[in-house]
Amino acid sequence: MNDFLTVIGAGLAGSEAAWQAAERGVRVVLYEMRPVVSNPVHKTENCAELVCSNSLGNNHAHSAPFILKEELRSFNSIIIASGDKNSVPAGSALAVDRDLFSQEITEKLASHPNITLKREEIVEIPQEGPVIISTGPLTSPKLSEQISKLIGQEYLYFYDALSPIVNADSIDYDKAFFASRYDKGDADYLNCPMSEEQYYKFIRELKAAEKVQFASFEKPVYFEGCMPIEVLVDRGDRTLAFGPLKPVGLPDPKTGKIAYAVVQLRRENRDSSAYNLVGFQTKLTYPEQKRIFSMIPGLENAEFFRLGAIHRNTFINSPSLLTNELELKSHPGNYFAGQITGVEGYVESCAMGLLASLSAVAKISGQSFAPPPTDTALGALINYLTTSRSKGFQPMNINFGLFWVQDMKIRDKKMRNEKIAMNALEKIKEWKDGLSIPVRS
Ligand SMILES: Cc1cc2nc3c(=O)[nH]c(=O)nc-3n(C[C@H](O)[C@H](O)[C@H](O)COP(=O)(O)OP(=O)(O)OC[C@H]3O[C@@H](n4cnc5c(N)ncnc54)[C@H](O)[C@@H]3O)c2cc1C
Q1: Cβ–ligand 1 contact at 190 (below 6 Å)
Q2: Of 147, 221, 380, 402, which one has the greatest count of Cβ atoms within 10 A?
Q3: Cα 438 from chain centroid (whole Å)
Q4: pTM reported for the whole predicted model
């Protein structure tokens, strides 16, 4: 057993894992294959690059994603601290300027005295542990093969989808208007209202549009929260009007009336020079995206900085493979973290990076490690990964359904959530105080 930690992949999970160990005085060698080897989704060589939405999710007090972020804040998470510092207005979500966000994380990691950042593709898993494998949904093919051999079974997979980004200067602001739903918070979203006629014409075109075909070996399995727009349309003509295009609480300030449907755009960066189309993940061909999305009122002349796409995602069957210390049962010393464990989302991936790191640091220090209690967000996630039924195991993001909740007779949902949140934050503090692993003075 080495006295240093190897982390493979400097994404959301690997960056957090390296940071947490280094801050506890443990030497870390962090491998990142970019820019030497690239993939179809990452665009920079930065650590913790956000590949799709620039949102780190809901930050509204007492929501489940908020609790997870608060727990991570209590551990001085590098991801959340950088998110807070480089945030852009986005209502109750924590959205960030993606470049400032990942540049700051890269600089902090590269300059940390305990971290050696190596730009190298790992194709063989090091024999000597502890090793954290946090190579994400787009783990390089060579390493995927090695992981397959290590776990002794085939990967599971499903698909994720990217939504398009438009140049803010190309939007027609005579048609699009700024507003937040029900006037809650600042008017951070840009809204493109559609009449009934425009909506159904749009739906007809979406249905008939040319889509990129899946390769013969690919079987489309989507994560419910990231459904391609054309898949939603296939569920019924009005699905979008009741889903991502729902107009409620968004009256057009020019007419005072609620449109039949509203396409919402969210700021991509701090200087508001780009907006992404919320919920518009898609597998339409690029020319079809340009043609059909330009039918959206206000986007007739839109310049697309990026078009939508769908990519394969990779995750292991954690319930059958991992202990609740995120260590491979069959090969102790090998830990998994991030999306590859079967959590879904940036913050959830970062959370697993934190826990795998604390677990590996405990091993290096000869201490025991027990995961956080299941009435905390961190504990609820690790519990999901390791105690779910292995058959049909699917990735999951943080939600109240995962928390262990003591029987409480509070019917008011807001009060109930507040109680769960307060309990979780108290419990995570106790757990943190009880950890016997070193903390840098
Ligand atoms: C197309 C797509 C869109 C997504 N959209 C969203 C979204 O909008 N919101 C959201 O919350 N989540 C989204 N996700 C999920 C997202 O990937 C995760 O939430 C998050 O990035 C996962 O973090 P991670 O650290 O596990 O992996 P990553 O952030 O992908 O980091 C893995 C790192 O490992 C590196 N790597 C891979 N193989 C090797 C190797 N052999 N050697 C060395 N380095 C290697 C990669 O270059 C990468 O930097 C999306 C995923 C995909 C694929």
Answers
A1: no
A2: 380
A3: 29
A4: 0.80
Residue with CA nearest ligand 1 atom 13: 345
> What is the 136 CA–ligand 1 centroid distance (Å)?
4
**CATH (residue range 162-311):** 2.40.30.260
pLDDT of res. 294: 97
Of the two residues 300 and 224, the one the predictor is more confident about is 300
Dist. CA 205–CA 417, nearest whole Å: 42
Counting atoms of ligand 1 from 1, which one is nearest the CA of 11?
Answer: 31
- How does strand 190-194 pair with strand 261-267? antiparallel
Burial of 182 (0-12, 13-18, 19+ CB in 10 A): exposed
Residues 6+ apart with CB under 8 A from 189: 90, 91, 178, 179, 180, 181, 264, 265, 266, 278
Instruction: Give the mean pLDDT of 362-372.
Output: 94
Per-residue pLDDT of 266-281, as tens digits, reads 987 777 888 999 999 8
- Phi first, then psi, for residue 378 (nearest 5°) are -65, -45
Residue 191: how many CA atoms within 13 Å on its side-chain side?
28
How far away, in angstroms, is 183 Cα from ligand 1 center?
A: 34
Q: Within 13 Å of residue 360, how many CA atoms lie on the same side as its CB?
A: 38
Gap between the Cα atoms of 40 and 373, Å rounded: 38
Tens of pLDDT, residue by residue over 331-344, are 999 999 999 999 98
- State the Rg of the chain over Cα: 22
317 in ligand 1 pocket by Cβ < 6 Å? no
Q: Identify the CATH class of 4-155+316-434.
A: alpha beta
CB distance 379 to ligand 1 below 6 Å: no
Domain boundaries, the chain: 4-155+316-434, 162-311
Ligand 1 contacts CB of residue 339 (under 6 A) = yes
Question: Structure tokens of 184?
Answer: 């809650």
Which one, of 345, 422, 355, lies nearest residue 382 by Cα? 355
Strands (E), 9-139: 27-32, 55-58, 87-88, 93-96, 115-119, 131-133
| Residue 49 CA, closest ligand 1 atom number | 29
Instruction: Name the E strands within 171-308.
Output: 177-178, 190-194, 261-267, 274-277, 304-306
Task: Name the amino acid, one letter, at 313.
Answer: N
